[in-house]
Amino acid sequence: MQSISVHDLHAGRDRPLIDVREVDEFTAGHVPGAVNLPMSTLGENLHMLPEGAFDVICQAGGRSARVVEALSARGHDATNVEGGTGEWIASGYDVES
């Protein structure tokens, strides 16, 4: 499974970021530019995934890792953000709400 750190993400990547947390978690604060596609609804919204490579984030890295594994098995070029939004915030990086 491909993974990056929140520091790599913050340094800048030219690819979409999918946040798989639930809507209430996302609206409470998320990485700027992230698009919310909750893990619980992802199966019915696969058509909404970007074409090409993209990154996947959750709160701590567990849900996003499971999503990346499942999507990679389906042929998607997905990368997990280790540490998730929690580590992003703990690192002092800005969030949108």
From TrEMBL:
- Which InterPro entries does the record cross-reference, listed alphabetically? GlpE_sulfurtransferase (IPR050229), Rhodanese-like_dom (IPR001763), Rhodanese-like_dom_sf (IPR036873), Thiosulphate_STrfase_CS (IPR001307)
SMART domains, per database record: RHOD
Q: Which residues form the Rhodanese domain?
A: 11-97
Pfam families associated with the record: Rhodanese
Transmembrane feature ranges: none
Name the chain's protein. Answer: Rhodanese-like domain-containing protein
Source organism (scientific name): Microbacterium mcarthurae
